[in-house]
Write a structure and sequence with these properties.
By secondary structure, the protein is an all-alpha fold. It folds into three domains: 2-57, no CATH class; 68-282, no CATH class; 309-479, no CATH class. It contains 20 helices and no strands. The longest helix has 61 residues, at 66-126. The relative contact order is 0.10.
Length: 479
């Protein structure tokens, strides 16, 4: 039929078919193009052939749709950062594997208890500066305006860090006791939190000016430095939790310095009052998200260390690193590119439709991949970390759900003020479920309770986000 239809056009069709085809492909996509061709064909066979083609391709993405031009931009952006992110994650996993093997579960858990504490202190130090950089810098088209936003953001964040660090020192006894840290390790925790905040902020500057390739290179630099410092410091000072903490600090500072060098055209000694007002107005929602992030990532290690010991915390970190942390790398890659693209209103609903359509394949494929990655992580760190299939399945399932939840949250944040609020609520919901679930389940089921809690939290959070995505695409009428 296809051959007959094409032959019919070439011999008996009208002369303006070629024009109709090209015009429709450019403006409305292949479905409308085939429909126009069917109307221009003289023979019944030709009309049936191209009518069938029009029915097949009617829902095919058009150049203005998310599936056309924006999908190409998205894939180009992901490809720019994807390889670097994956290599960087492999390097940091290599550093964690070496640290886990050399330290053993108890000391490895102690080192990660400091990291968990730094995530809590990070909330006050960060105050939404990184999210504001991405939001407001990406909205500007001219480099001078972007420079005002980023420069103001950088200097305000450094000024804000001074009272925060001072308060951390003033209340050091209470905070150290709450985090379950000895006094000496608490000092390292504060320093780590400051370096982490600085690095997060300047890396997000690259996203704000859409330097996606440079963003990927920074991750690669971070991974290389992390692995290098872990090996060098362990050879110099032996098996000590401080060697891991020092490696993180040096890797954070090195990658932050690389980012600032890449942004040298945008960083200036200026604080713009208008930009400062915008940044101040955008602190609440990102701060709530940082609180949720701490509840998701830091709650379980702290609770396990306080209730069962640092050994169990170290085992949890290994399972979490092989599954959920790996998933966060892919979520970060997607969010790095998706957030600026999905901020355009016309791309929101098509993006939601695609996510709703492929969410189940994402979960199944992701969970299967994370089973393998978690098993490999456990085999590499050594015999001190038990390999339990049920635990692997729990963490792999949680990681698969986190992929969907991460993408859905990015779409909510990028939508509008309502979407931002719904995304924050969803993230807080995940964090609170994890916190209270871990507190209850660890007392009742010991270590495996933390696995149940993280699975339940991502299940509830994913359901929340996808329900609103379905509502936006099927129920709400756009103005």
């Amino acid at each position: 039929m296809w051959v007959v239809g094409c032959y019919d056009i070439m011999l008996g069709g009208r002369k303006d078919i070629d024009w109709a085809m090209k015009t429709s492909l450019k403006r409305t996509g292949p479905g409308t193009a085939f429909d126009m061709m069917a109307r221009h064909v003289d023979s019944p066979i030709g009309r049936r052939a191209f009518g069938a083609a029009a029915a097949i391709f009617r829902n095919f993405p058009t150049p203005g749709d998310w599936g056309g031009h924006n999908t190409r931009l998205f894939l180009q952006g992901v490809s720019s950062v994807g390889l670097f992110f994956l290599i960087a994650r492999a390097l940091t996993m290599g550093a964690q594997i070496l640290a886990g093997r050399w330290l053993g579960p108890a000391n490895f858990g102690l080192a990660n208890l400091v990291l968990a504490g730094s995530n809590v202190l990070f909330i006050a130090l960060q105050l939404g500066f990184s999210a504001a950089a991405v939001k407001f810098a990406s909205m500007e088209s001219f480099q001078t305006k972007q420079a005002c936003v980023l420069s103001t953001n950088l200097w305000l964040s450094l000024l804000w860090a001074i009272p925060c660090v001072a308060l951390c020192g003033f209340y050091h006894e209470r905070l150290a006791t709450s985090l379950g840290l000895p006094g000496a390790l608490y000092v390292w925790c504060v320093g780590l939190a400051f370096c982490y905040s600085l690095r997060t902020n300047v890396c997000c500057f690259l996203q704000g000016v859409k330097l996606f390739a440079q963003r990927g290179i920074v991750e690669l630099v971070y991974g290389l430095l992390m692995l290098l410092f872990v090996v060098v410091l362990f050879l110099m000072f032996g098996s000590n939790p401080l060697t891991v903490i020092s490696s993180y600090i040096l890797a954070y500072l090195g990658s932050a310095a690389w980012s600032l060098y890449a942004l040298r055209k945008w960083i200036r000694p200026v604080i713009d009052i208008g930009a400062a007002r915008d940044i101040r107005s955008y602190t609440l929602a990102p701060t709530l998200n940082n609180i949720a992030g701490a509840l998701i990532g830091a709650a379980a290690p702290i609770i396990l260390a306080r209730q069962l010991g640092t050994k169990e915390a170290g085992i949890y970190v290994v399972y979490n690193s092989g599954s959920i942390v790996v998933a966060s790398v892919f979520s970060g890659m997607i969010a790095t590119v998706l957030a600026p693209l999905a901020s355009v209103p016309e791309t929101q609903n098509p993006a939601w439709r695609k996510l709703l359509k492929i969410s189940i394949p994402i979960f199944l494929g992701g969970a299967a991949a994370f089973v393998l990655s978690t098993w490999l992580m456990l085999k590499c760190v050594g015999r001190g970390y038990p390999v339990v299939p049920a635990w692997i399945l729990l963490f792999a399932g949680s990681a698969g759900l986190s992929l969907i939840a991460g993408s859905a949250l990015t779409l909510l944040y990028s939508r509008d003020v309502t979407g931002l609020r719904l995304g924050v609520i969803g993230n807080i919901l995940i964090g609170l479920t994890n916190l209270f679930g871990t507190l209850w389940a660890v007392r009742r089921f010991a270590f495996i309770g933390a696995g149940f809690a993280i699975l339940a939290s991502y299940l509830i959070g994913t359901a929340w986000c996808l329900t609103w995505g379905w509502y936006f695409t099927h129920c709400k009428k756009e103005a």
